[in-house]
Design goal:
Helix content is 38%, strand content 0%. It is mainly alpha-helical. Helix 3 (50-59) packs across helix 6 and helix 4 crosses helix 6. It has one domain (2-20, 49-153): Orthogonal Bundle (Cytochrome Bc1 Complex, Chain D, domain 2). The radius of gyration is 18 Å and the shape is globular. The protein starts with a helix and ends in a 13-residue tail after the last helix. It has helices at residues 2-21, 29-34, 50-59, 96-104, 114-117, 137-148. The structure holds heme C (HEC). Heme C binds next to helix 4 and helix 6.
Length: 161
């Protein structure tokens, strides 16, 4: 399974590095079309399972850095708490592929305010660990689906806010 995950990561990495190396004018769309690739092609993640994704989120302890308001994950001791954005309103903010990229290639997009928010270390890299050699593609898709399902708190107490 991990090998499949690695292959997918390599595919994503090689795709992104290709697009960086080439100037737009050099892309031969006709040639790509010959291989069944249209000019509007984009990487799509397999459909994930939201319930499974929540389980993975708990098992891998993503909640140690990411609070998800309204969800019941184990309490985290102050000394074990890491820093990361709260995720309860992520639904619709980004496509699932963006969430997946955050998990398997955390340095691809770094929040411009990352430094002041404490998300970025002194080395300029995201404090989000790279899970590409730990998770299977299915687990990444499930996590992305779970995060994409988070529409914020629905409890009555918070409704007045
Ligand atoms: C050690 C702390 C830490 C752990 C553990 C961690 N993250 Fe993160 N995560 C971060 C930080 C810091 C950022 C913000 C980084 C940035 O923007 O470059 C982040 C960003 C993200 C984002 C992007 C959020 C956005 O606003 O676009 C997602 C999605 C995410 N993490 C999911 C996860 C998942 C799923 C796990 C568990 C598999 C996990 N994280 C584990 C620290 C962590």
């Amino acid at each position: 399974m991990n090998r499949i995950a690695l292959l997918a990561v390599m595919a994503i990495v090689s795709f992104t590095s290709c697009s960086k190396e080439r100037t737009p004018g050099e892309i031969d769309h006709q040639k790509m079309g010959e291989h069944g690739m249209t000019s509007d092609w984009k990487f799509t993640l397999p459909k994930g399972d939201t319930v499974e994704g929540k389980k993975v989120f708990a098992e891998i302890e993503c909640y140690k850095c990411h609070e998800v308001k309204g969800e019941k994950f184990p309490a985290v001791a102050e000394t074990e708490k890491g820093i990361g954005p709260e995720l309860s309103q992520m639904a619709g903010m980004h496509p699932p592929e963006f969430f997946a990229e955050s998990i398997i290639n955390p340095n691809a997009v770094i929040d411009p305010k990352g430094k002041e928010l404490g998300y970025v270390g002194d080395d300029g890299k995201s404090k989000m660990p790279d899970y590409s050699s730990i998770l299977t593609v299915k687990q990444v898709a499930d996590l992305a689906s779970y995060i994409d399902s988070l529409k914020g708190q629905k409890s009555h107490k918070q409704a007045g806010h």
